[in-house]
Every structure is written in C-alpha cells, then in structure tokens.
Design a protein that fits this description.
The complex is a heterodimer of chains A (349) and B (580). Chain A is 44% helix and 15% strand. By secondary structure, chain A is α/β, with parallel strands linked by helices. Chain A has 2 domains: 190 residues, 3-Layer(aba) Sandwich (D-Maltodextrin-Binding Protein, domain 2), CATH 3.40.190.10; 141 residues, 3-Layer(aba) Sandwich (D-Maltodextrin-Binding Protein, domain 2), CATH 3.40.190.10. In chain A, the strands form 3 sheets. In chain A, strands 1, 2, 3, 4, 5 and 12 form a 6-stranded mixed beta sheet that branches. A 5-stranded mixed beta sheet of chain A has the order 8-7-9-6-10, covered by helices on one side. Chain A has a two-stranded parallel ribbon with strand order 11-13. In chain A, helix 1 runs parallel beside helix 3, helix 2 crosses helix 11 and helix 5 crosses helix 13. The longest helix of chain A is centred in the C-terminal third of the chain and has 19 residues. The relative contact order of chain A is 0.18. Chain B contains 25 helices and no strands. Chain B has 580 residues and is mostly helical. Classes of the chains: A alpha/beta (349), B mainly alpha (580).
Chain lengths: 349, 580
C-alpha cells in the first residue's frame, strides 16, 4: 500500500515535528476553544468505531491529536456487532468507558436511544455538510451521518480481466465464481447486515441461496473480503468500493465495479454516549469528524468527504447519478435479527 | 482436621508426646488452608453458581424457567455446533497425541539424536499462541494463495490446490500444533521420573525394547497420558481464536462461535449459560472416568529410594524417530513462524522475496501509529506475570492439601481447581462479568477483573502440574520429618518445596506464556483502557490485514521468547530442557 505508506510516513513526520512546536500554531473558533479547554480537563476521548478500517481510524485519531495536542484519542476498532455489543455491555453495566460511537448500521442508534444511551448534540460543523448528509442524521441530534462506504464489487485485476468482471449483483451468482467470492458475515459486520436486509428486499432470499451455491468465503469484516481479493486468495468480493479505490490508487491489483443495478449504501452514523466519561472531548471529536481536516483525509483516501467545501478525489465515481439499494429505514431495525438468522441457516455458519 | 485419613491419624498420635506442643496440634497451616478455600469460592464457586443460576433464570422476570435451554438447544444448528465441537475435540486429542507421545518418549527415554533441538522446537509450539499459529497456516495453506499451494502449482504447473486450511482438517491441525505441547511436557515429565528397574525386569524376562515400552513404560505413564489428553480436550473445545479465524470460513460451526452469537446484541447471557451446561456435564463425566481408571492401580513412581534411568537404544530407528520429530516441529513451529516473520517484513505477503517488497512500515504502524497496541503489549505481559504467580501458589497449596488429604472431602477442592476448564473461556468471562463487573463490585474495565479471570482460567494447568508433582513425591519423606518432630509447614519448606522447585518454575512459565497471550477470556472483559494484545490482534484479524497482524504477532513472539529464555537462564539450565 504505497499510497498509504507515504501518507502515514508524512503524518508521522508531522506529528514528530508538532511535538516540538508550540500548541498556539493552531487557531480555533471561539466555541471550539471553549470545547478544547473543557476537553483538556478531561484528558482524552475514547472512540468506538466500526465504520472505517483500524488504519483509517488511527490516522484520524493522529490527525485529531495534531489539531488538539492536549487531548488524547484512542480508537477502538472492531466489526459492527462486536463494537455494538461492547457498548451495550457497558451501558447495561452502568460502566460506560467510551465517548463516541461510530457505526455502519444506524439501527444500532435506534436501540441505543431506547436504552437512553445517547446524548443529543448538534455539532457546529453540521452547517458545512452536504444537504443530503445533513438530512441523513437524526433530527433531534442524537446521531449524524459521518461516513459513506457504499457496497459494490471489488475484483483482483491480475486474476480477472476488466471485461470479465461481474457487472451486476446477479452476475455474482454465475457458477464461474464458484469458490472465488468473498463476503462478510452479517452476524459480525453491521454494514453486511444492512446489505443483507437491503438485498433481500430488492431480490428476495433466493439471492442468498444462489450465492451460497458459489461457496463464498465468509469473513467477519468486509475488509477481510477485500484483503482476500488483494492477496489473490479470492477473485471477487462484495466490499465497500472506498476500500477498493484506495487499494487501486495505492497500486494494489484491484479495481471496483459499480453494479448497474446500484450500490448498497449502509447509513453510517456517529453519536455521543449519554454516560460518556469525557463528554467535552467527545463533542470536540464529533466536531473534528465533520471538520475540514477529516473530510480532506477521507478525500485523500479516495473515500467520500461529506462537506460541501471538500471535493472528491479524481477517479472516485460521483454518487449523484448512481442508483442506490437501501433498506427501508422504517423496518430495517426489526429485520436485522431475523435476516441474520436466515443467513446463518442458509450458509451454515 | 487431619483425622480423616489413616496416615495422618497414625502420625497424629505422635502429637501426644511431650516435645510436640499444642501449636503443632493446631497447625497454623490449617488457617492457610481455610484461606485457600475462600479464594476458590471467589474465583470459581461464585462465577460458576452465577452461571448455573442464570441458566435457569428468566431474563425478563428473574423467575425460574427452562426456556433458556429450549432457546439454546431448540435449533438443529445449535445442537450441531455442540456435536461438531466434541468431534473436533476428539480429533485434536488424537492428533496431538500422535505428535506428543513419540516425541516425549524419544526425548526422555531413548538415544534419539539432537534431543535439545527437538525440545527447543516443541517449546516454540508453546510460545506461539494458537491464533498466531492459525494465521501462519492461513498464509501457508490458504486454498488459492497459500504458499504451499502456490509452490505446488509452480512446481507442477497444475491449477489445483493441495491443501485448504479452511476445512475441518485445517482446524484440527492448527489446534493440535499448539496443544500437543502440554501433552509433551506432562508425558515427558512422567517418563523422566521413571527409573529403569521395571524396564530392566522386562528385559531380563526377554522383552525387546518395543515390547518393554508398550507393556511397561507406557502403562506407567498412563495417568499422564490420560490427564493430558483430558486437558487438551478441554482446552481445545474452549478455544476462541482459532475457530474465529478458521471455522467461520470453513463453515464448521462450533460452540464458541455459537456462544459469540448469544453474546452479540441483544446479549443473551441466560441462553449462553444454558448452552454451556452440557459441556460442564460432559467434563464432569470425563473427570470421573479418569479417576475411576486411575484409582484402580498405584502409580507412585518416585520414592525416597534410589533408582537409575537409562536410555533405550533404538539402533537405526533413532533416525526415523528423529525425522518424525523434526517433521512435527516443522509443521508446528518452523513453517508458521517463518511465514509470519516474512509477512511482517513484506508490503504484500503474496509479493514473494524481493527488495521492493521489503518494508518496516508494518512494524512502524503497529508500534507507533496504532492507538492501543503498544499499551496492550505492556498490559499483557504484566497480567501474565501476575496471573502466573497467583495461580501457581494457589494451585500448589491446594494440590498439596488434596494429595495429603488435609481437609475433609479434599476431592471437592481438586474438582474445583479443575472446574474452570469446563467453562469455555468466553463463558467464564461472562460468568465473571455478571458477578464482578457490575455494581456493587464494579470491576468492569479494571486490570483486577482480568487478573482474577486469568488466575481462574489457568488454575487447572497450575493444578495439574502441581498435583502431578506432589503425587510423585511419596509422603514417606515428609512423614520422616514429622516423626522427628517437624511441623507440616517445616516439612513443606524443607522437603516438598525443594523437590517441587522445577515443576513450580515450569508451572509458572506454563501459565505466564498463555496468560500473556490469552484471548478467550479477555475478549469480553477488556475495557478500552485495559486492552490486551490478543484482543488487539483479534480485532485486526477481522480486517484480514495479514502483514500488520504478522508484525504485531512477531513483536509479541520476540518479547515472549526473550522472557522465556531469560527465565530459563535464571532458573538454571536444568529447567524445561533437561540435559541427560
């Protein structure tokens, strides 16, 4: 991953330089200064995240620490359902240790709201967000959209010529991909559980029964499927196209397909925990996630910046005219459990 | 207290003599023993009771119910996972025994060449935690890109793969290459304690070396074989990391994976508790069986009397045995460790050996850019040391009490010490969680709850090592001390402790290494500030970034290896790798 290597080497160099620089090199908005001062008292923020890879999460934390040198940032990355389970365990134990929670499955927030586990906070930076993204969050301020990682098809370019790559979701059911597919398990991956719900609504459960006939390799995270394709262990994966694009730009033998029938868009939100031990550091971090630096990082990594003032990187397809397959938000929460159960029955794990 | 057994009654009579005072009659050791029992209650009885009670508790009302059992076993898939687990356990024990027994015999009783090399290799199997062995084998035997398969395809030009780690066989192999170590150590220890007199007798009566081994040597080490097989079975069915890596892609559901389903949101502790109760019963039956088999015969092999140990001469067969041993070491240590190190230094693990593929970035990432891995390494080593120290001291005291029958119903204490093995690591974690994490105790997110859980988790290893050691020491030596007027503690200090120095030190390392790498128990007990390195690695495995994973794994392996080598140096060269 040459691209990432350079980025992080640069980030590391900057961090090292920063340590010797006076903190006053940064300038803050008045509200920001106020939050920062309060956050300094608290020490640091703990971020539970399943929305990005751990590499990206740690890079975001490093960038946060660069802007706010006196507040530490610990990113705890795991798959969606593992992260969610950890948070809810803490909520039920009345021993919450995390501050900010970022998920690929917004039904988590519905459950958390029922348990009074979220605090309402509307970040100042919301005003700079794309209108569609502003609308995607919770209107009472319990969570807001913080990332987009649309599901598409990623394939290994050494093993699959571009014209033979699958073009639609249904192409994945072709027997020629037998033993060559990689997918994630909805029992672990939050975004995969949204994918399973959305695809069942669009194509019926037969889709997964036929998919099983091709014996896909099932990993826990979608990143695992992507990495299986990078290594050539599998030829094709159902994975976020953002990962595929990042790998392609970094010189890895992968490319993406935006399926003709549409990308699947898992809603990816972030919320502040009601019992957060460092609420101000948490709010400061939420602001940072919506801030310009974080959006620029997303753009640089060939992901989608959510702000109107940060353009998408070259080579990243515009989502404006792409059809989207999404789960019905009204019923998704109650469908996740039964659908995952069906997945277990069909795939035998 | 000590009136329950005949030996102690006999020597208790000595207390009537004038020079033994009241203080010796009320032995101060009794207080220690009572204390030990209380500790066991905290570590084992309370969490286990909570587990059983939970399994019959209605989560909504708190009343009695059997609905949890219906939830747990009402689905064919759930029952299948249990059957699969038992099947896997038996296969792993069989393969581990096929690895361990010849190697242990070869290293302790024969003139096989290069024993130190084999011993060191086997010890490597112990240093590599199961999940890292699993990652090594995924790199070696991934069905399409694994090194072995690509080498085969390169050599033959064939498109086909020869090995697939994501299969039942792969699962069993990865488990066995880690778990055979325990068998090797326990069986070797038994072999080394035997003297040659009985074998000589067989030889004099006309039996050849093979027949002697089969008829005399192996039956004498049967307790160790059975004990270690049982131990291996129980560890195997409770291991979380390897199934998470391999059985999900292999579509081979096992109990721990099913449990992680119950532990995902909404958390169903009650169903999980119910689901693990049959495992508890199976283990109870197995332990009972072991006791029945062992109680029929006497196995005391070491007495205060002399005896000689000589090596069996194998002739040309010694090279065959060496070849097999080297093969086992290659499978279990050399190959997975080598690919792991190579991947750690590669930009892409499939990129092959070239300068352009060489990088230190993976190490830079895991050591300096990753938020929690640095702290996690320190936490793991610290917890490992604390857990090992407590577990060894506790287990030794208890095995002494049990073997010498110093309290009423000593078997109960022994059974309690073994009990943690019945509980899969993640269930143990949940049992601990439900008793100690929540208020009023409120230990969630502290090092204390991890340390307590680790001590409990490794108590069976400590206890098995300790009681094997104590069992091998005939009471006649302590009785001699006591006849001459020494108290129980004096006898322990002057006779038992020196004799047990080596098993004690071995027991400590036997616990430190896996405790510093423990995953199954830690996975639900860590807080964001108390993450251990295994949990960081598990989170990394989800993403399949093999190179970074390999780098962190390598760092862990190097640190543990250095600590073990230091330990061996400090404890003397006779330690673990015995030179004959």
């Amino acid at each position: 991953m040459k691209f990432a290597t350079k980025t992080f080497a640069a980030a590391a160099a900057i961090c090292a330089g920063l340590a010797s620089m006076p903190a006053s090199a940064q300038s803050y908005e008045p509200w920001e200064q106020e939050l920062y001062d309060a956050a300094k008292e608290e020490g640091g923020v703990v971020w539970y995240v399943s929305q990005t890879t751990s590499e990206m999460a740690n890079a975001i934390c490093a960038e946060f620490a660069k802007r706010y040198p006196d507040v530490t940032c610990d990113a705890i990355r795991a798959t969606g359902s593992v992260t969610f389970q950890r948070v809810m365990q803490e909520v039920q134990a009345n021993a919450v240790q995390g501050d900010v929670y970022s998920s690929n499955d917004d039904t988590d927030f519905v459950e958390m709201l029922k348990a009074d586990a979220l605090a309402a906070y509307k970040p100042h930076n919301l005003e700079h967000m794309l209108p569609s993204m502003k609308a995607a969050g919770n209107q009472d301020g319990y969570w807001y959209a913080s990332n987009i990682s649309p599901y598409g098809i990623v394939y290994n370019t050494d093993l699959v010529p571009a014209d033979e790559a699958p073009k639609t979701w249904n192409d994945l059911l072709d027997p020629k991909w037998k033993d060559q597919l990689a997918i994630a398990h909805p029992g672990f991956s939050g975004s995969m559980s949204m994918f399973t719900v959305a695809v069942e609504e669009a194509y019926g459960w037969e889709y997964f029964e036929k998919l099983e006939a091709n014996k896909p390799q099932i990993g826990r995270s979608v990143s695992d499927g992507y990495n299986l394709v990078v290594s050539g262990e599998r030829k094709v994966a159902i994975a976020p196209i953002t990962l595929g694009l990042g790998g392609k730009m970094g010189g890895k033998p992968v490319d993406i397909v935006v399926p003709e029938d549409g990308l699947m868009l898992p809603p990816s939100g972030t919320g502040l925990l009601a019992a957060a031990p460092h609420p101000n550091a948490g709010k400061l971090f939420e602001e940072f996630l919506l801030g310009k630096e974080a959006a620029q990082m997303l753009a640089d990594a060939h992901r989608f910046p959510l702000r109107s003032d940060v353009p998408t990187a070259d080579g990243v397809p515009s989502l404006a005219n792409t059809p989207m397959i999404t789960a019905n938000p009204g019923t998704a929460a109650e469908k996740v459990g039964p659908t995952t159960e069906k997945f277990r029955e069909t795939f035998g794990i | 207290m000590s009136t329950t057994t005949s030996t102690n009654v006999a020597y208790g009579g000595a207390a009537a003599r004038p020079r033994v005072g009241l203080l010796n009659r009320f032995q101060p050791s009794s207080l220690v023993f009572i204390g030990m029992s209380l500790v066991l209650v905290v570590l084992i009885v309370a969490p286990l009771t909570a587990l059983i009670v939970k399994s019959f508790t209605d989560p909504a009302t708190g009343g009695f119910t059997v609905a949890n059992y219906i939830d747990a076993y009402g689905k064919a898939r759930h029952v299948q996972a249990l059957v699969n687990t038992l099947y896997m356990g038996v296969a792993v024990v069989a393969l581990s025994l096929a690895f361990a027994l010849p190697l242990a015999w070869g290293c302790s009783r024969t003139d096989m060449p290069f024993k130190s090399f084999i011993r060191a290799g086997v010890f490597g199997a112990f240093i590599i935690p199961p999940y890292l062995g699993g990652i090594g084998w995924i790199l070696l035997a991934g069905p399409n890109s694994g090194w072995l398969n690509r080498a085969w395809q390169g050599l033959t030009g064939s498109e086909a793969s020869i090995v697939n780690i994501f299969s039942f066989e792969g699962l069993v192999l990865v488990m066995a290459i880690n778990l055979y170590f325990t068998m090797f150590v326990l069986i070797s220890a038994a072999f080394e304690m035997l003297n040659s007199e009985l074998e000589d007798a067989a030889n004099i009566l006309g039996a050849g070396p093979i027949k002697t081994a089969w008829k005399v040597t192996f039956p004498l080490v049967l307790p160790s074989i059975l004990g270690s097989a049982l131990l291996t079975f129980l560890v195997c069915i409770a291991l979380y990391g390897v199934p998470a890596l391999i059985s999900i892609p292999a579509r081979f559901p096992v109990v721990v994976i099913q449990l992680s389903e119950f532990f995902s949101y909404p958390l169903r502790i009650e169903t999980a508790a119910a689901y693990s109760i049959p495992l508890l019963l199976i283990t109870a039956v197995l332990l009972l069986l072991q006791r029945l088999i062992l109680s029929r015969k006497g196995y005391t092999a070491v007495t205060g009397k002399g005896g000689e140990r000589r090596m069996v001469r194998l002739g040309p067969w010694r090279w065959v045995l060496f070849g097999y041993s080297a093969f086992v070491v290659a499978l279990s240590v050399a190959m997975p460790a080598l690919v792991l190190f190579m991947a750690a230094f590669s930009s892409s693990w499939v990129g092959g050996l070239s300068l352009s593929n060489l990088t230190l970035q993976n190490f830079n990432y895991v050591l300096f850019e990753h938020a929690t891995s640095q702290q996690a390494i320190v936490t793991s080593l610290g917890l490992g040391a604390v857990a090992a120290t407590f577990a060894v001291l506790l287990a030794l005291s208890i095995s002494y009490i049990v073997q010498r029958k110093l309290v009423p119903m000593p078997g109960v204490l022994g059974y309690l010490c073994m009990a943690p093995f019945v509980i899969p690591g993640i269930v143990l974690a949940i049992a601990f969680y439900s008793v100690y994490a929540l208020p009023p105790v409120a230990l969630y997110g502290t090092y204390t709850i991890l340390a307590l859980a680790f001590v409990t988790r490794f108590l069976p290893i400590a206890y098995t090592t300790g009681s094997a050691g104590v069992r091998a020491i005939h009471p006649e030596m302590e009785e001699a001390v006591r006849i001459l007027g020494g108290g129980r503690l004096y006898a322990i200090r002057k006779v038992v402790a020196p004799l047990l120095k080596r098993p004690l030190a071995a027991g400590w390392l036997l616990i430190f290494v896996p405790a510093a790498q423990e995953l199954s128990t830690a996975v639900f007990l860590v807080g964001p500030k108390t993450r251990v390195v295994s949990v960081v690695l598990l989170d990394m495995t989800e993403e399949g970034e093999m190179e970074k994973l390999a780098a962190l794994g390598s760092v862990l392996l190097v640190i543990i290896t250095i600590m073990v080598l230091l330990g061996i140096r400090l404890l003397g060269r006779d330690f673990m790798v015995r030179r004959s």
